[in-house]
Amino acid sequence: MLWVVFGAILFLVAPIWSPDTYSYFSVPIHRFPVYSLVLRGFEFLLGRDAFGLYVVFFQLVVGYIAIRLVYDRCAHVFSLSRPVRLVLLLILAAPYAPPLHVGSNLASEGLAYPLYLMVISFAIDFLFRKQPQQLLWLALTFIGLCLTRGQFIIMAPIIAVVFLFHKKKHILKWGNLKHFLILILLPFLVKGIDSSFHKVVHGYFVSTPYSYVNAVTLPLFVAKWQDSSAISNPDYKHLFVQSYATIDSLGYTRARTMGDSRLQYENFHDHFPMICNQNLHDKGRAYFFEKEGKEHLNAIRTEQASKALLPILISQNTAAYWSVYFEGILEGFKSILLLLFFVGVLLYSCWRVLRRYSAHNAFILLGSTLILSNALIVGFACHSIERYLFYNYFIAFLIVILTLRKLIPRI
Fold first, then answer.
1. Residue ranges of the chain with pLDDT lower than 50?
2. Residue 287 and residue 282: Cα distance in Å, rounded?
3. How far apart are alpha carbons 317 and 268 in whole angstroms?
4. What pLDDT was estimated at residue 199?
């Protein structure tokens, strides 16, 4: 059935060229390397006119493999009934349909989503099926995932904590300790590979400089004109004043928003690209290029400026920042009840795992931590849109099923 659906997508939906697609082709320093290399590789082999369809085919094949892997693992480990399996399969395949079009869109999600599913499937093997050899595949897919979308770098430490809970009485045995250390060190390895890539391609040993540029967007939105007096660096002050002047003139600031924190978040949410990409980022790169005349270095300087501005603007507008940030978290969950549910199951599963480890409770702990951490990271780094949150929908479904089983064992 899945092959039929994916085949229909391949033949009925033309490759979608999004605004991000074009930026990947130039392999800019502010993009993570893997998806740029995939697009450029297909273009090199097939030419610009023909490669799009082959990229879509590649993304659909990798997606099919990933869905089969995680579907089979979950069905086996959690003994899912046929109706539950069918719903799980539909949820796993849903991102390939509108509005996300993960398989057809020439954007990083086309590779990041399958890699995310693979990391989860190998984590299930490693944690719950007593297959330590799968740690190698877990590590490789995790590295590929984080070099495609950096928001998932927290996954390995979360898996490490669940592993620690499982092996807490024997964690000092060399085999267990080695596995734990590998998981803890994986994010540092990713940073090293990322920086090395940029050194070879762009001439600077830095991790992809586009994290603080995103993160400072909300502090910029809630800022006030007088906050410039707290910025001592003249370059950073200039960037703040120029960026704030633009969004203030357009009404894209908290000060220009009439209403409560919910309406303030909606203004921020709706105009995030104008506040960040088309404003702060573009102005910063133009300013530092004019000042120093070095391509790529201007992106690094903009990231450094954003990193310096972040704590200053938050400290000047602490209450406003956290109120709008919390609204962003709620936007991701759509309801405070869902947020409280996942917080509750995280705390409950943590307590149960510490008392007596089981695959079901450990997966609930792993899944709820992944859901909450991703929501917190997305809310901090940018804005809560489906494009950044859909990865965990199937995990949320499984958590609900495993939780209901405690009340209805036959479900």
1. none
2. 9
3. 15
4. 97
Question: Any bridge partners for residue 105, and if so which?
Answer: 16
pTM exceeds 0.85 for this model = yes
Run of H or E residues at 45? helix 33-46
Show the tokens assigned to 306.
């954003």
What DSSP assignment string belongs to 328-372?
HHHHHHSSHHHHHHHHHHHHHHHHHHHHS--HHHHHHHHHHHHHH
Predicted local confidence at residue 315, as pLDDT: 97
Cα distances (angstroms) measured from residue 149 to each of 33, 117, 217, 270:
9, 14, 19, 22
Place of tokens 């919390």: 326
Contacts of 30 (CB under 8 A, 6+ apart): 208, 209, 210, 213, 281, 299, 303
Specify whether the CB–CB gap between 211 and 381 falls below 8 A: yes
Which residues make Cβ contacts (< 8 Å) with residue 121, sequence separation at least 6? 66, 69, 70, 72, 73
Domain boundaries of the chain, sorted by first residue:
2-204+334-404, 212-328
The DSSP string of 147-174 is TT-GGGTTHHHHHHHHHHHHTTTTTTSH
Smallest CA-to-CA distance from 114 within 155, 63, 151 is with 63
